[in-house]
Specification:
Blueprint lengths: L11 E5 L3 H13 L3 E5 L2 H11 L3 E5 L7 H9 L9 E5 L4 H9 L4 E4 L4 H16 L1
Parallel strand pairs: 1-2, 1-3, 3-4, 4-5
Helix pairs in contact: 2-3
Length: 133
Amino acid sequence: MSEEEGDFAGLKVMVIDDSKTIRRTAESLLKKAGCEVLTATDGFEALSIIAEERPDLIFVDIMMPRLDGYQTCALIKHNEEFADTPVIMLSSKDGLFDRARGRIVGSEQYLTKPFTKEELLGAIRSHAEKQSA
């Protein structure tokens, strides 16, 4: 199944990553798919944006300064307003421990970096479908 431009029009997606390259790559791919994209460089910056902008889906890098991805995900999931917002962990490590820890703090999925366009959009599709179902 091919990706049509604008498949996810109106979907607000947040990308939290301290790597400018990852943020730019994800932002470019997501915008082409029609998403509105919010970005943050770490968990602290992200939390205020999440509270204000209320994204539909959040991608969060695990390894970040100040507040890492696990802590950020846990804070999002412990807030009643955002507990149902899908959080997808991003990591350059593909270990079983990392995946399990991501599940423990409430993340819905785990993508290994570098991710492909198909992986990124596939993750959005599976969670967008669950939310609209």
